[in-house]
Amino acid sequence: MEKTPNEQLEAIKSYLKQTSRFENKSVEQIRRNMLEAVQNIPNYSNIEINKAAIGPLSGEWLIPKDLIPEHEKRAILYFHGGGFVAGTCEFYRDLCSRIAISSGIPVLTIDYRLAPEHLYPAANEDCLLAYRWLLSNGYSAHHIIFGGDSVGGSLVLMTLLSLRENGVDLPACAFLISPHTDLVHLDGEIV
């Protein structure tokens, strides 16, 4: 028997609650667990890691060692996931290294401000700051790609909308990996 849309939504909610690794964990525990996990992730030998200061933010460039010269002024600006409360450049280094190697384009990740210490729109403001920083450092909007996973995907969308609304040149394209776009955690009504 086929489930109704409301029954399907309830089944999805139940599954997500059962598979959540962060259920019943504090923000501090989540961050500590991520920090511990980073210690076990090896770096790629064909990636150069350079720290970046983007105004008040810290960031990290992941540059393929066999970078094609014409890709030097191209960038993927990657916004990490972590539920707006966790995630760091270091935690996302493995994924972003893979993206850099696969694309042949340097990837810049940023440590945007996290909740609950910093409320909305702090993270979005930081993503806008990073994009403007790239533009002010000689990168053309047509040579910048946005990427993000989970709430990082949400930040990509929020940043694109903010740029469009303010008449700022948009990046060449964007990609989202399993974006978290339902910010009411699937509690919205089915239309």
Automatic annotation (TrEMBL):
Keyword RNA-binding in the entry? The reply is: no
Q: Which domain of life is it from?
A: Bacteria
- InterPro entries noted in UniProt: AB_hydrolase_3, AB_hydrolase_fold, GDXG_lipolytic_enzyme
Q: Which Gene3D superfamilies match?
A: alpha/beta hydrolase
Ranges for domain Alpha/beta hydrolase fold-3: 76-183
**Keyword line:** Hydrolase
What Gene Ontology terms describe what this protein does at the molecular function level?
hydrolase activity
Q: Under what name is this protein listed?
A: Steryl acetyl hydrolase
* Species of the source: Paenibacillus pinisoli
Its ancestry begins with: Bacteria, Bacillati, Bacillota, Bacilli, Bacillales
